[in-house]
């Protein structure tokens, strides 16, 4: 299958790839787009069955490695050989996998509200079974509470992304999260890495998730954003954007594409 990809910004600028979280689309990164497209060519993609990407086909269970390979296929089709990558949650896991599988291509890495392991596999398999049985409605009904702090009032557009997601695509991505564990491989990541964590992120709190990434990836920097839940780039766009732009300014001014 071919993932949907959207390009913005100067065509001759160095490339930054942005990966979405489970249940969201390219629109997740809209708050960061104006700042990033000033200096970089930005490529955003949709996960299988999300947004404008088709649902996964047949075959075995989807893995994060499969998603990383699909992203590379998109970049190959775009003529992009070397790039920076930033991803939220599942999108961050894809970024870690890319940095491990294609270290010569990932020039800089931002891992936002993500983890080397997303908890017990059984919980993800149970969620996948629920969605295959009842659709995405039950998980959409509780998404705002997982994604944002209680006082946040802007959740509706992001919950709408989840409600529009194909159940087979969502469930397949749950299977990928269930099988993902990069903990013992993090020391092999060579890309300069920024880890961004939301101080009030319930699914992947800084303790046990972001701090593990920062401790085990050589030279990684950890930034904890106050007042932010799981989709920190949406809830606190200012500090998250500033951290990402500062990191990219230091690490990715290289040759375009």
TrEMBL record:
PANTHER family xref list: AB HYDROLASE-1 DOMAIN-CONTAINING PROTEIN, MONOACYLGLYCEROL LIPASE
- Domain AB hydrolase-1, which positions? 14-126, 172-237
The record's listing under InterPro entries reads: AB_hydrolase_1, AB_hydrolase_fold, AB_hydrolase_sf, PcaD/CatD
- An example of a Pfam family matching this protein is Abhydrolase_1
Question: By what name is this protein known?
Answer: AB hydrolase-1 domain-containing protein
């Amino acid at each position: 299958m071919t993932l949907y990809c959207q390009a913005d910004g100067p065509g001759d600028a160095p490339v930054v790839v942005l990966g979405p979280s489970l249940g969201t689309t390219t629109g997740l990164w809209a708050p960061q787009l104006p700042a990033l497209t000033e200096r970089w060519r930005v490529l955003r993609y949709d996960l299988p069955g999300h947004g404008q990407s088709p649902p996964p086909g047949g075959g075995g269970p989807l893995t994060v490695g499969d998603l990383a390979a699909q992203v590379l296929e998109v970049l190959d089709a775009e003529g992009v050989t070397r790039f920076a990558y930033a991803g939220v949650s599942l999108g961050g896991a894809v970024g870690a996998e890319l940095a491990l599988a294609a270290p010569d291509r990932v020039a800089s890495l931002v891992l936002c509200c993500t983890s080397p392991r997303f908890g017990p596999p059984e919980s993800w398999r149970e969620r996948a079974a629920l969605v295959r049985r009842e659709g995405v409605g039950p998980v959409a009904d509780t998404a705002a509470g997982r994604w944002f702090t209680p006082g946040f009032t802007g959740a509706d557009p992001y919950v709408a992304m989840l409600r529009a997601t194909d159940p087979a695509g969502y469930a397949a991505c749950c299977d990928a999260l269930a099988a993902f564990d990069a903990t013992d491989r993090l020391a092999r990541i060579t890309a300069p890495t920024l880890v961004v964590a939301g101080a009030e992120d319930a699914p992947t709190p800084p303790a046990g998730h972001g701090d593990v990434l920062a401790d085990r990836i050589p030279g990684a920097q950890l930034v904890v954003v106050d007042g932010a839940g799981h989709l920190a780039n949406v809830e606190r766009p200012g500090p998250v954007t500033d951290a990402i732009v500062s990191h990219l300014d230091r690490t990715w001014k290289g040759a375009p594409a």
